[in-house]
Amino acid sequence: MSSSVSSTSNSVRKVQLQINGVSKDFDGVLAVDNVSLDIYQGEIFALLGASGCGKTTLLRLLAGFEVPSAGSILLDGEDLSRRPPYQRPMNMMFQSYALFPHMTVEKNIAFGLKQDKMPKARIADKVAEVLELVQMNGYAHRKPHQLSGGQQQRVALARSLAKSPKLLLLDEPMGALDKKLRTRMQLEIVNILEEVGVTCVMVTHDQEEAMTMADRVGVMNNGVLSQVGTPMEVYEQPNSRMTAEFIGSVNMFEGTLKADAVDCAEIQADALDCNLYIGHGITGTEGMELAVAVRPEKINVSREPPSQQYNMARGVVEDIAYLGSHSIYHIRLRSGMIIMASVGNINRQLASDKDQRITWEDEVYVSWSDTCGVVLYS
Amino acid sequence: MARLTSWRPGRSLVIAVPYVWLLFFFLAPFAIVLKISFAESQLAQPPFTNLVAVVDDVLTFSLNLFNYIDLYEYDLYLRGYLNSVKIAFFSTLFCLLLGYPMAYIIARMPTHSRNICLMLVILPSWTSFLIRIYAWMGILKSNGLLNNFLQYLGVIEQPLEIMHTSVAVYIGIVYAYLPFMILPIYANLVKLDYSLLEAAADLGAQPWKSFVRITLPLSLSGIIAGSMLVFIPAVGEFVIPELLGGPDSLMIGKLLWAEFFNARNWPGASAVAVVMLLLLVLPITLFHRYQARDLELKPDA
Q1: What mean pLDDT value characterizes chain B?
Q2: Are residues A141 and A38 part of one domain?
Q3: Structural domain count of chain A
Q4: Are residues A233 and A369 in the same domain?
Q5: pLDDT tens across B144-201, in order?
Q6: How far is B194 from chain A (nearest CA, A)?
Q7: Residue A366, number of CB atoms within 10 A of its CB
Q8: What is the pLDDT of residues A206-256, one digit of tens each?
Q9: Same domain as A286, residue A229
């Protein structure tokens, strides 16, 4: 679905991992439902979804901890879906890091290399190399419990990179870190992965994390991969109500298609007095039910009525959430629908200029341009 | 920090309880036994001499080492000690070989069946120890359950001579002390983070290798605890060799009993007991040192 709009670099990239119609059945419950996905060499791919959506099961299928009920997993054209985990050229960084508590950092990293019967001198070199990569050179003889959470994560990353895997799997990589450290480590891990050039599939429930780190994002829901695309595509062009609502917040207008032309479409929305106007033609028959999603930051709030006759509404400010960089206005329309509008706090707001600001109980107009709405059929 | 170390009466009381217990029920009896071991046997009430006495206005203090010299000179005791340690060692080994797989399997079971199996492990100890050993007599004797059954099946023609041999002692000790091996190992294995084994597999280790490199070292403290719980009481075991054993299963517990009740030589029996305790101090110290190291390893445990 997104191949036509994928970034151009993907077309020259080689497909490294092919997931073909993979399903996983747990006692009659489909945790992963017929998922097909191509991962390109060198890309960072994030599986994003709420807990229980099947993203972790899919990752465990890749690692070999679960055997698929149907479908195949091909790495460089080779089917490994029935191979045990210890025979797969991929390594995983666990959410809990799963560092061996009785071994030093050095021994933890050397563990995988020893399984490959690598000569001792080369193991030492390789351990030093990956420790350098994650900037943990001075910690080779520490035990995991002597390290902070962030340091443990670096060691876990070093251990999973030591065997130069063809594919790196990250399970909720930032799950155990506090927010401040999380933001720093996200970028740092991306830098390390790019330096190594390893293909990476990560699992996360944090959309910000997925969008920061990944080249492409796959949104999962109920075991189904509902949308795949770059973070921008997934955010700006969601293909379903579910994706639109899961990634970021959204104002969803349910309605019916009134008129459909080549370059525009008009939709009658139940919650609005005026029609919705979309600046492009859509594929649909008149009278069909659909939804239009508009992101809060694309909505303009003003005291004066806007010039346009469509994509607007009148309402009362019911709530304001001041978030520092921006504020979220909750505006109640006459129909009872509440519209969320994000307004950037461009000017420094002081208590003294309270009167000029739009505030609680104010009558306001909301409006948005005809390019902002996304038409959703499902 | 000052607050933490400041004296708090309630806290001291709580800590004092086990110390008082140990003082009255371990240290004081041991001091008495130690004292008797330096006395001389006599036909009187009590059957031993005082260490301190006033003889002809002279305060005499006599420390009698005969009992210890006897232990050294009669090789019966030496054989008794060595045999006890040998039987205890191999019983511990058999318990470990049997108990580890059992503990491992129980720890890997779903919670429901796990509790049933743990119950089954503990259940026999609800019956008297003595009665259970008597039951083994019924099983192992020449015309007992085991021999009758094997003869009925036609596996053997002549009954096996198990009763009153060291084989019977081994069977008895392993049977009686197996739960003490299983429970600490189980408690250890059930806490084992399964993702560590997944990580080992992910890094290329085959199942047996991740067992040797991850599971086994991480359950070592359970193995040591279980081994100590079996080894220490097994060395001094009296009932099992007395009831199931024969002349070849000479154990120090039996010698001690004979010295005390048959020969009525309290000082000699006390000396036997003191030396046995000294023999056991070594493994106990090692055990505690290991435990301390283990705690250091996991500060949050």
Answers
A1: 88
A2: no
A3: 3
A4: no
A5: 899 999 999 988 888 888 899 999 999 999 999 999 999 999 999 999 999 999 999 9
A6: 9
A7: 23
A8: 988 999 999 999 999 999 999 999 999 999 999 999 889 888 889 999 999
A9: no
Do A84 and B201 count as a contact with CB atoms less than 8 A apart? yes
What is this model's ipTM? 0.84
In this structure, is residue A4 part of a structural domain? no
CB contact under 8 A, B200 and A100: yes
The whole-number mean pLDDT for each consecutive block of 10 residues of chain A, a chain of 378 residues, reads 42 86 93 95 94 93 95 94 94 95 95 93 95 93 93 95 95 87 90 93 93 94 93 92 89 90 86 86 84 93 88 92 91 92 84 73 91 88
Task: Determine whether the interchain pair A96/B193 forms a contact, defined as Cβ–Cβ distance below 8 Å.
Answer: yes
CB contact under 8 A, A145 and B201: no
Q: Is B206's Cβ below 8 Å from some Cβ in A?
A: yes
Interface contact B202-A92, CB threshold 8 A: yes
Torsion of CA B96, B99, B103, B106, to 10 degrees: 160
Does domain B65-297 sit in CATH 1.10.3720.10? yes
Residues A182 and A273 in one domain: no
Q: Is B59 helix (H, G, I), strand (E, B) or coil?
A: strand
Whether residues A57 and A111 fall in one domain: no
Say if residue A31 is in the same domain as residue A156.
no
Q: Taking an 8 Å Cβ-Cβ cutoff, which residues of chain A contact chain B?
A: 63-65, 84-87, 91-92, 94, 96, 98-102, 111-112, 115-116, 143, 145, 159-160, 163
Domain boundaries, chain B: 65-297
Q: Minimal Cα–Cα distance from A144 to chain B, Å?
A: 10
A61 in the same domain as A23: yes
B212 and A CB contact within 8 Å: no
Compute the nearest-CA separation of A35 from chain B (Å): 23
User: Domain of A204?
Assistant: 12-89+166-247
Per the CB < 8 Å rule, is B198 touching A85? Answer: yes
- CATH number, domain with residue A200: 3.40.50.300
Question: Is A300 within 8 Å of A315 (Cβ atoms)?
Answer: no
